[in-house]
Amino acid sequence: MEKLDKEIQEDLIRELRNRVEELDKKVSKFEETGISLNSRIGNNETRLRERDTIEEALLHGERITGTTNASAGTISEHTHTLNRTPTMVFITSKGNGVVYLTAKDSDKITVKSSANSIDFVAYLLI
């Protein structure tokens, strides 16, 4: 499943790179024909909006917050709504201790911590 997801993501990246190259060619063509500065600015704004859309499509994910188990070193489960196993998980501890990932699947992540009841924020990307 992850291999298929990676292949799909690589195909998307390839297609999006081709679109960006096409846009770059169009901008160069407009610059060569002497289109006004305002027109070029408009084209650049369009390119930026399209690149933002590309990034959103590639970096789909979710932010979840939670608190680890009351006993340090004990697993705690936290649900997410991605309906897919995240490919990357970034965890930021909000207390005195370390929160680390122990497992992930299509509906939850499990974490442990080095101290009792540490609040955290996790960013899950697919």
Q: Overview of this structure, please?
A:
It is built from 2 helices and 6 strands. The protein is α+β, with helices and mostly antiparallel strands and 126 residues long. The protein folds into 2 domains: 57 residues; 65 residues, no CATH class. Strands 1-6-3 form a 3-stranded antiparallel β-sheet, with no helix packed on it. Strands 2-5-4 form a 3-stranded antiparallel β-sheet, with no helix packed on it. Helix 1 runs antiparallel to helix 2. The model has no long low-confidence stretch (mean pLDDT 80).
Which structural class is indicated by helix and strand composition? alpha+beta
- Average residue pLDDT: 80
The Cα radius of gyration reads 21 Å
Order of SSEs? HHEEEEEE
Helical content stands at 40-55%
Shape: elongated
What is the count of helical runs? Answer: 2
Gap from first CA to last CA? 12 Å
Strand line-up in the sheet with most strands:
1-6-3
Low-pLDDT regions? none
Provide the domain count.
Answer: 2
Q: What is the number of strand segments?
A: 6
Query: Mind summarizing the main beta sheet?
Result: 3 strands, antiparallel
- Our estimate of the beta-strand percent is 25-35%
List keywords for this structure.
6 strands; 42% helix; alpha+beta; 2 domains; 2 helices; 126 residues
Provide a brief overview of the structure.
The protein is of the alpha+beta class.
What is the fold's blueprint, element by element?
Layout: H1 2-32, H2 37-58, E1 61-67, E2 76-79, E3 88-93, E4 99-104, E5 108-113, E6 119-125
Antiparallel strand pairs: 1-6, 2-5, 3-6, 4-5
Helix pairs in contact: 1-2
